[in-house]
Request: fold
Amino acid sequence: MLAESAKPGAVLLRPFSAAAYFLRKTANIFEMEMRKLRHEPIDLLTRAIQPLLWLLIFGQVLAGVRAIPTGDFGYIEFMAPGILAQSVLFISIFYGLSIIWERDLGIIHKFLASPTPRASLVLGKGLSAGVRGLSQAAIIYPLALILDVNVNLEPLHLLGVFATVLMGAVLFATLSLFIAIKVKTRERFMGIGQVITMPLFFASNAIYPIAIMPGWLQTISHFNPLTYVVDALRTFMLAGGVSAFGLGQDFAILILVSAVLVWLASRAYPSFVI
Reply:
């Protein structure tokens, strides 16, 4: 009788225990990826060169031309959140290359033979890409202050930037992992990564407003997740920043697309070793 009476409680606890197990395994994968990061800190510094060039050269030139309408912001101010979003994109979109190396070394086979949820394997790696993205924020923020950008340093806004960078990195890293699983080779992966990176960047509001785009490009930009990353970053990062779409919509789209990509990548993961 006692055993039978305990069954309903045990059933109720199963979803919580499953969720706890999933989170624990995700944290394990995340921690493993962070250990790799300790051995390659120079990589983060070299990746900071490109956003620095965009802000210091491209941004300074166009700021002098005054050809792009940016509302109440100067062009450097308008551009700074977009370049942070660009850095997150560029770091994350090639993240799938790491699992191709892991497959060649036989590491993926060990993961798949373990009881670790496939979604944990994907999400843990995506979260580690978020930390790499945050390292770019630590570089771009001081540079923005040097360039006299009116950056909002209130704690809640900094937390908003943290959350946006993390979600953007998870989304693009998971997309990268899904592409890597499907193409399986480094050469194909690098080719596809290079093909989609610049269209994602230029078909967004990172370096110019959506309003000045031709109609067909405006339509594409509204389906581009980078647009919503930039919109949220511009809202949180700049003093007086206002979301064009609403932060609720920005975060809803990022979370929904990320969830779909995690599901797709986790479903495809076992086929990676075939």
DSSP finds twelve helices and no strands in the chain.
